[in-house]
């Protein structure tokens, strides 16, 4: 099986799926949507952990 | 027009009220309700997985026994991506002889069905991305955030959050396609006003 993944376990890739994953790692450009998600998450994270884990996320 | 919801994010604890958490009538979502009501705290106490909950205050603030209600949650656990052989990690060639790469897994993501449209799932995921970077990767090393998405949630992860769908025929056919976010492609020093998708959409976050 080329992909094996369960909810609380690791992801196993073989054959074409492993090769494609490596290609993603090597060739994909930074994703602006991921960058924006991270930027918003950073603010949320600082509120959550900065105020004893009890803060409004927005 | 929907009214906003004031909610907070906290690590799950025993005082949170989970009994009223509802996923509606969709049978396929029942495991997400069962997990938060029956298993999430035990998983956490056993150091198997940690859950962060979006919560709202008790309905009656004067009721001393009232509990904070969970309206969404995300559950995270350690994971790895096994590539069945050496991989070319160009930014860390010394690691190339190992067959797997460290990851954090989004095991569960769910929003109470009465709170759809408030981007609670999206906010929980943004929190998870930043947590992976700042609370995991920078302390113990972690290259990816990964999830087994529901097939109808692929668009949510791709378009709202910037996840990548492993682009193979087999993965696209899966009931739960593998999706990932490469933490090493994030610019941790970028100014905080980086813009992505507009915030105007009220699409409900789909469960993982």
Element layout with pairings:
The complex is a heterodimer of chains A (58) and B (208).
Chain A: E1 3-5, E2 11-13, H1 15-27, H2 32-50
Antiparallel strand pairs in A: 1-2
Chain B: E1 8-11, H1 30-45, E2 50-56, E3 69-82, E4 100-111, H2 120-140, E5 144-148, H3 154-161, E6 164-165, H4 169-173, E7 178-182
Parallel strand pairs in B: 4-5
Antiparallel strand pairs in B: 1-2, 2-3, 3-4, 5-7, 6-7
Number of E-type strands of chain B: 7
As a percent range, the share of helical residues of chain B equals 10-25%
Main sheet specs of chain B: 7 strands, mixed
Mean pLDDT of chain B: 87
Name the biggest interface: A-B, 48 and 71 residues
- Gyration radius of chain A (Cα, Å) is 17 Å
Which overall shape of chain A is indicated by the principal axes computed on the Cα atoms?
A: flat
Strand content of chain A: 5-15%
What does this structure look like?
The complex is a heterodimer of chains A (58) and B (208). Chain A is mostly helical and 58 residues long. Chain A is built from 2 helices and 2 strands, in the order ββαα. In chain A, strands 1-2 form a two-stranded antiparallel ribbon. In chain A, strand 1 and strand 2 form a beta hairpin. The termini of chain A are far apart. In chain B, 24% of the residues lie in helices and 24% in strands. Chain B has 208 residues and is α+β, with helices and mostly antiparallel strands. The C terminus of chain B is likely disordered. A 7-stranded mixed sheet of chain B has the order 1-2-3-4-5-7-6, with helices on both faces. Chain B is built from 4 helices and 7 strands; from the N terminus they run E-H-E-E-E-H-E-H-E-H-E. At the A-B interface, strand 2, helix 1 and helix 2 of A face strand 1, strand 3, strand 4, helix 2 and helix 3 of B. Strand 2 of chain A pairs parallel with strand 3 of chain B, so a sheet runs across the interface.
């Amino acid at each position: 099986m080329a992909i094996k993944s369960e909810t609380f376990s690791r992801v196993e890739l073989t054959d074409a799926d492993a090769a494609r994953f490596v290609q993603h790692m090597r060739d994909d450009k930074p994703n602006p949507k991921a960058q924006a998600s991270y930027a918003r998450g950073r603010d949320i994270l600082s509120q959550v952990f900065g105020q004893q884990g009890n803060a409004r996320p927005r | 027009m929907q009214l906003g919801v004031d909610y907070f994010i906290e690590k799950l604890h025993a005082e949170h009220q989970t009994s009223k958490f509802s996923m509606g009538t969709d049978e396929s979502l029942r495991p997400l309700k069962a997990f938060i009501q029956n298993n999430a705290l035990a998983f956490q106490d056993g150091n198997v997985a940690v859950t962060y909950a979006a919560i709202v205050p008790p309905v009656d603030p004067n009721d001393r026994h009232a509990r904070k209600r969970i309206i969404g949650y995300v559950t995270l656990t350690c994971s790895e991506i096994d590539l069945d052989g050496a991989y070319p990690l160009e930014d860390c060639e010394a690691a190339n002889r190992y067959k797997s790469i460290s990851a954090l897994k989004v095991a569960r993501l769910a929003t109470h069905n009465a709170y759809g449209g408030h981007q609670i799932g999206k906010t929980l995921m943004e929190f998870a991305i930043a947590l992976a970077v700042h609370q995991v990767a920078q302390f113990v090393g972690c290259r990816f955030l990964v999830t087994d998405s529901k097939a109808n949630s692929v668009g949510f992860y791709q378009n709202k959050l910037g996840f990548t769908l492993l682009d193979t025929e087999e993965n696209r056919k899966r009931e739960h396609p593998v999706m990932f976010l490469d933490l090493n492609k994030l610019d941790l020093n970028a100014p905080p006003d980086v813009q992505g998708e507009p915030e105007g959409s009220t699409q409900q976050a789909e469960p993982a």
